[in-house]
Structure formats: C-alpha cells, structure tokens
Amino acid sequence: RKRRSKLLILVLCLNFPSEVELCPGACVCYSEPKITISCQQQGLGTIPIEIPVQTQRIFLHNNRIGLIQSTSFTFCRNISILWIHSNNISLIEPGAFYGLNKLEELDLSDNVNLKSINPSTFQGLVHLHTLHLDRCGILELSTGLFRGLFSLQYLYLQDNNLQELPDDTFLDLANLTYLFLHGNKIKRLSENVFRGLTNLDRLLLHQNRVGGVHRRAFHDLGKVMTLYLFNNNLTVLSGETMAPLGSLQYLRLNGNQWVCDCQARSLWDWFKQFKGSSSELECHLPTQLAGRDLKRLPSTDLEVCLDSFNQIQTTAKAGPSSHSNRASPNNPLKDKENMAKTKHQVEAELPKNGSSKHINDSPFGTYPSAVDPPLTNLKSEFLGPVEPSTAPTKRRQGCSRRNKSRSQCRMAQPVPSAGPSFPALPSLLLPPVMWSLFCFS
Q: Compositional bias (Polar residues) at which positions (predicted)?
C-alpha cells in the first residue's frame, strides 16, 4: 500500500509542473478543485492569448481590458465560469463566446462603458445559468439578446440606464428564477414585457421611474414570491393587475405617489385577500388622507374621485343623501364656489356617447385647501357664470339706494304682469285723479 501511495504522489508531482508551464504570464494557475487561470488585478489591457485548452475557470476581473475579441476564447471549450467584471470593456465582438457550450456563469458587471450589446452575443450558451450585466451603463436591451438561454436562472440587470423593456425580451427564459431590474430608468411595464417567465420567483423593479403598469403585465408571473416596486412614480395600480400573482408573499410598494380615491378601490379590495407581507402605501392625494396607509383606510374614504387637477369630482355611491349640484339660495359662500367652475370646464365634463356616468356628485367640486387657488387670484375670463342644471326661481333685481330715495327705488321696480308691461304711475297722483273722475262723472 505504501508503494502505491508513493507512486500516486509521484504521478501528481510529474503532472503539476506541466500545467504550471502553460500558465500565462502575470497569472496564477491551479488545478483543484477545477483547472483555474486567475489573472485578477494585474493591470492587463487585453485578454491573455495563451490560456490552456483544458481551463475550466478564468478570472480576469479588476483589470483594464477594453475589448473582448471574437477570437479571445476560441480554444477554451471547457470553460464553465468566466469573470471579466470591473474592467473597461466597451465592445464585445459578435461571436466572442461562440462555442462555449459548457459555460455556466458569465460575469460582465461593472463595465460602465459597455452601454450596448450585440443581440447575437450570447447565442449558443445553452448551459448558462447566471449572467451578470449590472452596472454596465446599458441603454437598451436588443431584441433577441437572451434568445435560446433556456437554462438561465439568475439575470442581473440592475443599475443600468434602461428606459424601457420591449415585449418578449425574456420570452425564452422559462427557467429564470431571479430577475434584478432595480436602479434603472424604466417608465412603464407593457402587457407582454414578462411573458415567458413562468417560473420567476423574485422580481426587483424598485428605484425606477415606473408610472404605468398594464393590467396584464404580470399575467405569466404566477410563481413570483417577491415583488419590489417601491420608489417609483406609481399613482394607481389596479387589483386586476395584481390578481395573477397567486404565490406572492413579499410586496413592497412604498415610496410612490398613491392617489387614494375611487381608482384605488380595486387595489384596496385585492389587499383584503392578500395573505403575504406588504409595506405601507402612503397616500399622496387627496390632501386630507396624505400620509395614511391605503390598506388601512375605511372603504368610505375611497368613494370620492379626483379629476386630473386633483379636484374632488364624483362619489362612487349616489344615494338620497348625496349632494346636489344645485346652488343653495341661502348660502352665498356655496354660490361663490360654484362660480369657480367655468362654462367650458362644465362642457368638458359632460358624458359622451350617452354615458350615464355621474360627473359630479360631490359638494360643488371643491379643491382641497392646499391645492385650490383663491378665487381672487383667478383671471376675470375664468369667472364666467355657470349654466345651472335646473332653471332657478326668478327674483326681482335689487336697487342701489345710493343717491336715491326709497320712493325712487320703488319707481324703478318693474311690475310683473301677464300682459304687456306699462310704466307705473306715481302713487302720489292716484288719489287726485280718481277724485276728479268722481266729481265730473
């Protein structure tokens, strides 16, 4: 047994120098647990050309490499891990990774000048399960960039400059479980942006500029357990949009400008059946609800609707106690508020195509106090009279008593009559006339 062990040690010692001799300059090479070429932090400006064919792991991070050529890894068919992060890469030539059928992990992160990637760059990487493209300054994702990456499970795209995600960008990624998109500039999520991600577990979209989410944007995300959408520009998110997320356990929606009016009712209803953990949804509007958690509001607070100017416009429920638009004759303050609405605004709010939707069931469509400009600051052309919905009762016009006596004011009042009107005779002349008629009759 001793002889056999000595022979084994001798064989290992004879083989080790042959591998070391093939090691490129400025690199460290070792064979356990896998044949590895480590060249990190060596100030390299290019990828070494003398990489052994049998190499399984290559570490080239923290150098000054600016280009990955189409021939850089031509003979490295056994690579399973390739790290080239934290360099100055600005261009990856088409075909640079062609033939690397055993590659499982590719890290290109922290190359801030990469910005764009040819759509054929990752073709053929059928065993790739982890791809790092974070902090690369990427402006857009080319159509078909991830096509054929059926084994991919982890995709890191955070902290780039992405402004939009085309439909079907991730269509072939049926095995993807983690998708990191936070720290970009994404503005909206379209209907089929996540189509194909049937096994996704974690979706991070926080710290973007998302202001709109299509009602079917999450239709393939039935297995998502974690969804982060905090610190975006969301104001409304419907319960219908959230309904496909049947496995959701962790949800963060804080840091958005939530409008807690009738449009939030469906999301409020969805939260009633949601069993997972969620952050607060602080209301931004209306002002009387600012800072309160949408989930904890009573349903009555969500009956009011705001228009595009944040004006209280309608109530979701109309009953006998609902306020009418008719001005109160005994309340001049309400009459003044009615005048704040111009005629062209009223016409713009009228239902179209015979719609029976209520336009304004709230008290006179008043603004919240923090938003409403005072009437004294409005231009005169915006203070025109509003046509009432019903004909008001006729009232006699008043008389200014400035420089006039009480009798002169009386003379100025019109006398209502069913027939043609005549000027009223002075009341003081009536007795003498009648006396003369009596005497001479």
A: 316-331
For the stretch 121-145, pLDDT in tens is 999 999 999 999 999 999 999 999 9
Tell me if 226 sits within 8 A of 249, measured CB to CB: yes
CA 266, CA 287: separation in Å to the nearest integer? 21
How far is CA 405 from each of CA 400, 402, 424, 427, rounded to the nearest angstrom?
10, 8, 17, 14
Examine the pLDDT at 331 and tell me if it is beyond 70. no
Concatenated DSSP letters for 20-79? HHTSPTT-EEE-SSS-EEE-TTS--SS--S---TT--EEE--SS---EE-TTTTTT-TT-
Measured between alpha carbons, how far is 257 from 272 in angstroms, rounded to an integer? Answer: 21
Cα 37 to Cα 28: distance, rounded to the nearest angstrom? 6
Sorted by sequence, the CB contacts under 8 Å of residue 178 that are 6+ apart come out as 153, 154, 155, 200, 201, 202
**Contact (Cβ atoms closer than 8 angstroms) between residue 123 and residue 103:** no
**261-282 per-residue burial string, b: 16 or more CB within 10 A, e: under 16:** bbbbbbbbebbeebeeebbbbb
Average pLDDT over residues 373-401: 40
Q: Is 208 left (phi over 0), alpha (psi -120 to 50) or beta?
A: beta
Instruction: List C-alpha distances in Å: 19 to 106, 120, 154.
Output: 24, 34, 33
Which residues, other chains included, contact 388 with Cβ-Cβ below 8 Å and sequence gap of 6+?
A: 326, 327
- Picking from 363, 273, 276, 261, the residue whose alpha carbon sits closest to that of residue 308 is 261
Collect contacts of 41-49 with beta carbons under 8 A, ≥24 apart.
47/72, 47/73, 47/84, 48/24, 49/24
Q: Which two tokens mark 340? A: 């704040």
CA dist 74 and 76 (Å) reads 6
Tell me the C-alpha distance between 267 and 241, whole Å. 9
Question: Could you tell me if 343 and 351 are in contact, meaning their C-beta atoms sit under 8 angstroms apart?
Answer: no
**DSSP notation for 407-420:** HHHHHHSPPP-SS-
> How many of the other CB atoms lie within 10 Å of CB of 318?
12
| Distance from C-alpha of 273 to C-alpha of 295, rounded to nearest angstrom | 11
Average pLDDT of the residues in 252-265: 96
**Residues forming beta bridges with residue 130, ordered by sequence position:** 105, 154
| Residue 238 DSSP class | -
- Burial class from Cβ neighbours inside 10 Å (0-12, 13-18, 19+) for residue 147 reads middle
Q: What is the pLDDT of residues 84-132, one digit of tens each?
A: 999 999 999 999 999 999 999 999 999 999 999 999 999 999 999 999 9
Of 229, 230, 293, which Cα lies nearest the Cα of 260?
293
